[in-house]
Amino acid sequence: MSAPATTITAVTPEGPEVEAAPAKRQRLRFVANPKATTGLVVLALFCLIAVIGPWIAPYDPSARSSDLLQPPSAQHWFGTTHLGQDIFSQVLVGTRGVMFVGLLAGIVATALSVLIGVSSGFLGGAADEALSALSNVFLVIPALPLIIIVASTIPGAGDLMIALVIGLTSWAWGARVLRAQTLSLRRRDYVEAARATGESTWRIITVEILPNLTAIIASGFVGTVIFAVMSEITLAFIGISTISEWNWGTILFWAQSQQALAQGAWWWFVPAGLAIAVLGTALSLVNFGIDEFVSPRLRSSGHTRVKTKDGRTVRMKVGFTPVLTTHDKTAPVTPVVRVDEAKGTV
């Protein structure tokens, strides 16, 4: 006796039968991410201000006037200092130093971490031991105290020197991460195939290894930029770096030294603080966008949609498992019998 055929379909908790819609190929997925787009737009705006800030500043940031400690107005958008200096002009001019130090330190640290980390993981042997020892040495060097010592001992240490010191002392952690990832990639089938066809070592590294490390490299670059920006602002705030060059930390230094908070001059420190917060948020959004671009689970969580047969759209949830059910009502139903062995009952 043969059992009647049944139809098995996937059912979601929110509706009946579901048919998976064909997946659409997305182009420029990273730029299409709202987080990454927002972060890149804000970051591009800061870079633009860093370039043209001194040209569009309405006043000389160091020029004094008779408008002493004035709140924001149509003449002075962010108010003035105790010497009548325009704070809006100081913020615009100070953006260049912050972005210069952050981007230059990020480029130097990322280049060193890629060069040393990937070379160490791929070459192996004595080269790996030597480069790993070098990474371990720089890994335990405290970057901020070293920057303070260099900036205080070298007279007139400007943004270039600070950026180089930050970049030369911030590459070790990224190099360790890249070395670990390279060790896992060096024995992959496509790398072995390239090696078997006689490809040179550097071509294998640049063509086969580095494209698979792009997300880690980008994430390390963003983290280094954040650290460099905060280090530059910290040095200016505590008065270690030169206070003759304007940046956001210099504005906070003068606001703190002149007790702006006690005088109720909130406009003296709030704009620079907001600029720091917005820049840090933009860099973090770019980092989140990179993570979602790399991880399929983060990229598709809560965004996968399917259509039911009745035309409704259902959003798939993270961790959802389809349920299999039968829809042939003529099929015989087999009763489920449970036996309680302890009591001896059915």
UniProtKB/TrEMBL annotation:
The chain crosses the membrane at residues 36-57, 98-118, 130-154, 160-178, 213-240, 266-290. The keyword Cell membrane applies. It is a multi-pass membrane protein. The keyword Transmembrane helix applies. Pfam families: BPD_transp_1, OppC_N. Residues 99-287 form the ABC transmembrane type-1 domain. Belongs to the binding-protein-dependent transport system permease family. It comes from Kribbella flavida (strain DSM 17836 / JCM 10339 / NBRC 14399). This is Binding-protein-dependent transport systems inner membrane component. It is found in: Cell membrane. One of its GO terms (molecular function) is dipeptide transmembrane transporter activity. PROSITE patterns: ABC_TM1.
